[in-house]
Design a protein that fits this description.
The complex is a heterodimer of chains A (about 280) and B (about 350).
Chain A: H1 2-33, E1 35-37, E2 43-45, H2 48-55, H3 57-91, H4 94-105, H5 112-123, H6 128-135, H7 149-173, H8 177-185, H9 190-218, H10 222-227, H11 235-245, H12 249-273, H13 278-282
Antiparallel strand pairs in A: 1-2
Chain B: E1 3-14, E2 17-28, E3 32-36, H1 43-51, E4 58-63, E5 66-67, E6 78-81, H2 93-103, H3 108-121, H4 137-149, E7 155-159, H5 167-184, E8 187-192, H6 195-201, E9 204-209, E10 212-217, H7 219-224, H8 229-234, E11 239-248, E12 251-255, E13 260-262, E14 264-265, E15 274-279, E16 284-286, E17 294-305, E18 312-317, E19 323-327, E20 342-348, E21 352-354
Classes of the chains: A mainly alpha (about 280), B alpha+beta (about 350).
């Protein structure tokens, strides 16, 4: 009985937090999303907000674009962080590996906003890169490196790296070096070892890292807004526009729910395709 | 029989530390060769050089008369059974065993045939679809051996593979490994710190100490004619005494306890030289016959260490605090012995060896 009571006491804050700050507002938003003005200007129950997403090309194209770029960001993040994580855990000595891990963490002590401004200082027309390229005589006039999709993806990858590298490092640490040596001894080349032994072994780490990176990128507002420029519309900006610019909370709420449902769907498909299990990936 | 493996003047240093010091040996085709030594003696380093994970600083390794220096492990005709077996946990038994065959681009029907036949051979038919974590320790052992043997290596290297098993299983696997080796006829090079593994299974045993080989011989010769004091104390149990040579003909030594014994010099020892005297527990005879070729002394029984057929008597040499270990045959003749008893014991001169 006392055990039960302790459990409830410890659970209470979590449940309260979940209920008051997550569940309740979402229920409210859900009702808002199902209401729209009729021709008379009165609020009535309607699915028109959801309809708008599918009928207005700009909305679902923005979502598609956001989703594709988020997937691309996830893949690029993995391709960049995997060699780093492998190097830190399997190549260098234990002491150096701790130092390198800290080096990876340090940039994330600074807020995302400041880090993105850092990139802008480097990349903008009057920025550091252009200055030195001009001085070296490689270019005649400054190039605008900001405000395009490439710089935006680069910013997103940079922002996401930590969330991929940490699960990769922890699952690589669990990989016994003996497995790699055994595969080598049995005649496998280095590529086969990575492909057949290392990747399958750390698949749960890849899955959890990918889910986190994908969700964070999909819901990112700051980086696409600051580095993406006018043509790089992100779906979160659509939601922002509906709430703040158009003051159409009903439409914004519907977009919010669509983002939630569609991103969950994409992750579910991703897990099915790679035959991964969510609970195993997060354990 | 031609040699499968020849190692010549092999040296390997780690910074200032010499892990393997000028090692030479040959392994005959189809034989079971063990390298026995205490932990840290360099035997794993030696094995890893043969497997290709380490390159020697100097010397040569020849497998079937071809030098393999500079050849990476995946291209050497040897396979290694790792200490922790290193089976791939994400694959089932069949995929583990076929891993090496697939790397050689062997067709699937051929792979299946080989995998089934090797599973049969190690006594695990129908285990192909089992996951690695469903196997017991002994079964994992056999899968690891099957995974290497299926590639038909010139030499199978084994790095203390029985270390993780419990005693009963280890005894059983020892016999099975020996049988398997005789069956398949592959040359085995086995490293261990467990003398009983080396003695039971091997045709030849090399005793390694501080990076160098002290003796290469058959198990029986190592036990009965150890070439050095280290081997005498390392292989089997032995009572060790500090002694001084008092005469060379007949050879006599005086113990630090004051007793004087006839003995046998195993290395050239001059009169007055300090040496070590070794007496095996089983060569000590209780109630010895009166014979001039026997050293006799009195002991006081301190304890009976009952261990079945391996029962020992811990005794003190009379009037000293020096402990001596004596074998106690379990044939009911000595059942009367209890702590505190005084006994006459003797050792034949040939069994008192000096180094």
């Amino acid at each position: 009985m006392a055990g039960r009571l302790t459990l409830y006491i410890f659970l209470a804050p979590v449940l309260l937090w979940l209920f008051l700050l997550i569940v309740l507002p979402h229920i409210d938003l859900f009702f808002i999303s199902l209401q729209a003005e009729n021709d008379m200007g009165d609020m009535v129950w309607s699915l028109s907000n959801y309809e708008a997403f599918f009928t207005e090309k700009i909305y679902w194209l923005t979502f598609l674009r956001t989703a594709v770029y988020a997937i691309l960001t996830t893949i690029l993040t993995f391709l960049i962080t995997f060699p780093i994580a492998f190097y830190i855990t399997k190549v260098v000595s234990l002491r150096v590996s701790g130092f390198f891990t800290i080096l990876l963490l340090v940039p994330f002590w600074v807020s995302e906003l400041v880090r993105i401004y850092g990139w802008m200082i480097l990349l903008r027309e009057s920025g550091v890169f252009n200055h030195y390229l001009m001085q070296l005589g490689l270019i005649d006039k400054p190039i605008e490196m900001l405000y395009n999709d490439i710089s935006m993806i680069m910013g997103l990858v940079y922002t996401s790296m930590l969330f991929m590298v940490v699960p990769l490092i922890s699952s690589l640490e669990g990989l016994d070096d003996g497995l790699i040596e055994a595969a080598y001894d049995l005649g496998a080349s280095k590529i086969v070892i990575i492909w057949k032994i290392v990747i399958p072994y750390i698949m749960p780490g890849i899955t959890s890292g990918s889910i986190v990176v994908f969700m964070l990128t999909l819901g990112n507002y700051l980086t696409p807004n600051l580095m993406g420029g006018k043509n790089s519309l992100w779906f979160t900006e659509q939601i922002y526009n509906q709430f703040i610019a158009s003051f159409n909370w009903n439409q914004g709420a519907a977009f919010g729910f669509l983002l939630l449902i569609l991103s969950t769907l994409i992750i579910w498909i991703g897990l099915k395709v790679t035959r991964q299990n969510l609970s195993r990936a997060l354990s | 029989m031609p040699n499968d493996l020849e190692v010549e003047n092999l040296v390997r240093n780690f910074a200032a530390f010499r892990a393997v010091d000028n090692v030479n040996f040959e392994v005959e085709q189809g034989s079971f060769f063990s390298i026995l030594g205490p932990s840290g003696c360099g035997k794993t380093t030696l094995l890893r050089m043969i497997a290709g994970f380490l390159e020697p600083n100097s010397g040569d390794i020849r497998i079937r008369n071809e030098s393999v220096l500079g050849v990476p492990p995946n291209l050497r005709p040897v396979n290694l059974i790792f200490q922790h077996l290193s089976l791939f946990p994400m694959m089932d038994v069949k995929e583990n065993i076929s891993f090496g065959l697939k790397r050689r681009k062997i067709a699937q029907p051929e792979v299946d045939k080989k995998v089934n036949s090797i599973l049969q051979r190690v006594g695990l038919p129908d285990y192909g679809t089992k996951k690695i974590n469903q196997l017991s320790g002994g079964q994992k052992q056999r899968v690891a051996i099957a995974r290497a043997l299926v590639l038909e290596p010139s030499i199978l290297l084994l790095d203390e593979p029985l270390g993780a098993l419990d005693l009963k299983l280890r005894e059983q696997m020892k016999i099975e490994l020996k049988k398997l080796q005789q069956d398949v006829g592959t040359t085995f090079v086995y490293i261990t710190h467990d003398q009983s593994e080396a003695l039971v299974m091997s045709d030849q045993v090399a005793v390694m100490n501080k990076g160098a080989f002290e003796q290469i011989d058959t198990p029986k010769n190592l036990y009965t004619h150890p070439g050095t004091g280290f081997i005498a104390s390392f292989i089997g149990e032995n009572n060790e005494f500090d002694a001084q040579v008092t005469s060379t003909d007949p050879f006599k030594v005086k113990l630090d306890l004051g007793h004087e014994y006839f003995a046998r010099a195993m290395t050239p020892l001059a009169e007055g030289a300090n040496c070590k005297l070794y007496i095996r527990p089983e060569s000590i005879v209780i109630n010895p016959p009166t014979d001039e070729k026997i050293n006799t002394f009195k002991v006081v029984v301190k304890n009976v260490l009952f261990d079945g057929a391996n029962t020992k008597l811990l005794a003190l040499i009379e009037n000293t605090s020096r402990e001596i270990m004596t074998a106690l045959p379990q044939d009911k003749r000595f059942d009367y012995i209890k702590p505190g008893d005084k006994l006459d014991v003797g050792v034949f001169i040939d069994a008192c060896t000096c180094y």
